[in-house]
Amino acid sequence: GEEFSVERDIVRMSGTIADMLASFPSVADDDSASSSQPIPLPNVTANSLKLVLKWCEEHKKDEKEEKKDDDDNRERNQKIPEWDEKFFKPMDQKTLCDLFMAANFLNIQGLFDHIAKCIAKKITGKSTKEIRDEWNIVNDFTPEEEEAIRKKN
User: Fold this and answer.
1) Which domains, ranges and CATH numbers included, belong to the chain?
2) How many angstroms separate the CA atoms of 83 and 114, rounded?
3) Contact at 8 Å (CB) between 115 and 88?
4) What are the E-state strand segments in the chain?
5) How many Cβ atoms sit within 10 Å of the Cβ of residue 107?
6) Among positive and negative, which fits the CA dihedral 118, 61, 51, 36?
7) pLDDT of residue 75
């Protein structure tokens, strides 16, 4: 696979990689040692990793978002930063989903949350059929199950 050189502060944005490095204290503390030791990421494609790194570069100085459950924060937590909106907008569903899976695997919470908001925004106001068509989701409910769900909701 492809190899990427990544700054230490960007590496630390990934909970998964930070945990891996913590398992090897000599590597975690030595910037020069880490530059020569690749970390395999079998669940992340090269294209997704390029996008992850671009997002991380833009957000490396961001403060960690606190999650509070009051009305002010709920509204703020639903907003997608302008840079992220522009970053995600040209992506097709496959790229967006691959990036979402990469953010999940790498445990980059901010990226994961912003993609989730972007996806939610894309499906808001659409019918079940429109969402299935747009996202290539197969309807695996029987007509009886669909009717039961409609009655329940």
Assistant:
1) 8-61+69-152 (3.30.710.10)
2) 11
3) yes
4) none
5) 15
6) negative
7) 56
